[in-house]
Amino acid sequence: MNDPLVTTSWLAERLTSDEIxxxxxxxxxxxxxxxxxxxxxxxxxPGAVFFDIDEIADHTSPLPHMLATPAAFSEAxxxxxxxxxxxxxxxxxxxxxxxxxxxxxxxTMGFPWVYVLDGGLLKWRAEARALxxxxxDVSATTVEPAFDPGLVRDIEDVRRILADRxxxxxxxxxxxxxxxxxxxxxxGLHRxxxPGALNVPWSNLTTQAxxxxxxxxxxxxxxxxxxxxxAPIMTTCGSGVSAALLALALARTGRDDVAVYDGSWSxxxxxxxxxxxxxx
Length: 280
Hints:
Elements: E1 5-6, H1 8-13, E2 20-24, H2 36-42, E3 49-50, H3 70-79, E4 87-91, H4 99-108, E5 114-117, H5 120-126, E6 152-153, H6 155-164, E7 168-171, H7 175-178, E8 198-199, H8 215-224, E9 233-236, H9 242-252, E10 259-261, H10 264-268
Helix pairs in contact: 4-9
């Protein structure tokens, strides 16, 4: 499959297949008053394991859910029974929101066959498909550490991009946050965006039902923001979650080489030495 998404019908036909593993990657923004684990325990797709974005992370960093080290990630993936010879199907409860973060993480950590369920649990529930509340019995496995540095950018990489203009920066946050018109949901962050960044709000890439738009519609959305889909791209957002959704959307247009700024605005917006722009 070239498309990084699969349909609910496709998954329903393969629900008991030994060739796939299903991952619930539900995560909510701070302050929403609920957790991904609570959502998972209330009802998930049969056979799905829960990937906790905040737990499977680098806990030495003060930033939220930064990528774990390859060794720590491999241990966690092995405990979830994930293997690189399987197709990994990731979804979340919102439609398509946090699932792409785990899609990107798995790809960064050397998993070649990773897909996102289009419409996620939202569509699965709307179709009255089966759910379960108990976690599956999982056979732990050994996962060798691997890492693709080409899919990740850190703050020094961003500084170099600003200096030499070697890549476009596309920000997934809502337009009002990008322009600095409203405060950030996390305290202590400046308002605005990385100078020179383009803005493609992640919500413009999905329907209200949580379905990702077609490749043609996605290309049009990026083009309308001034992006050149033939040139290098790095995505950013508030904390690296919706930036991965942009990377997924770009993969649907054929760009599977897009890097994500892991620290995103949680890092850049907290630094006094990092330049900030406001307005369009």
